[in-house]
Amino acid sequence: MEPRLSSSMKWTPVPEELTEQIIDVFNKNFKAQVQSGDFHAEGRIFTKELLLRVGYKKEGEIRSYNFEVSIEFDPKKENAIKLLYTAVDCAASMMDEFFKNEEFHEFPKSWQPHKVDKKEVFLQTSTFNKELEEEADRLLGMEKEDTLVSEDDDL
Predict the structure, then answer these.
(1) Tell me, what's the pLDDT at 140?
(2) Which of 33, 43, 112, 114 has its CA 20 to 30 A from that of 124?
(3) What angle do CA 137, 146, 56 make, to 5 degrees?
(4) Residues of the chain scoring pLDDT < 70
(5) Bridge partners for 66 per DSSP
(6) Structural domain that includes position 32
(7) What is the pLDDT of residue 105?
(8) Residue 120 placed within a domain
(9) Which residue from 84, 76, 56, 71 is spatially nearest to 119, judged by alpha carbons?
(10) Are 12 and 45 within 8 A, CB to CB?
(11) Considering only CA atoms, which of 145, 126, 122, 142 is closest in space to residue 134?
């Protein structure tokens, strides 16, 4: 996941328990789609940015339909969990629209600003397949360690 802000280098992953809860929310709200695919979620908390990706991958397809949300925040003034809920709502709205029309190409491919509850959020989509990338990294011997705080040096 690439952050929107160039200053976003060091990050902490959104805890697995939260991403599992997010996936459960999507499984419950998109029951018909669960029959033919899987939802996945991941997020990163940077010093001044919260980043969330929620995706759907149809069975038998390589491409994943990802809906990504970036929200700038001040950890001294704002609650990251509340902003994460806002990000989930944004991703769910985009995904709902996608499932109604199946027109993925109409969504933004680069960060586009939107106002949500007086807060500016940025939305984009991608077709990144995390499982495929992780398997390629494993085969190439490029696996990354799980750490509490990570840093992206390739951005």
Answers:
(1) 76
(2) 33
(3) 65
(4) 133-134, 137, 143-155
(5) 55, 126
(6) 10-142
(7) 81
(8) yes
(9) 71
(10) yes
(11) 142
pLDDT of residue 1: 83
Residue with structure tokens 């939107």? Answer: 114
What pLDDT does 12 receive? 93
10 Å CB burial of residue 89 (0-12, 13-18, 19+) is middle
pLDDT at 146: 59
Identify whether 3 is part of a domain. Answer: no
Structure tokens at 143: 């696996």
Mapping DSSP to helix (H, G, I), strand (E, B) and coil, where does residue 87 land? helix
Contact (Cβ atoms closer than 8 angstroms) between residue 5 and residue 72: yes
User: So what's the pLDDT on residue 10?
Assistant: 92
Domain count, the chain: 1
Contact 94, 63 (CB under 8 A): no
**What is the per-residue pLDDT for 147?**
57
The two structure tokens encoding residue 139: 């085969």
Residue 154 domain-assigned (yes or no):
no
* 148 in a structural domain: no
pLDDT of residue 125: 95
- Beta bridge mates, 51: 44, 70
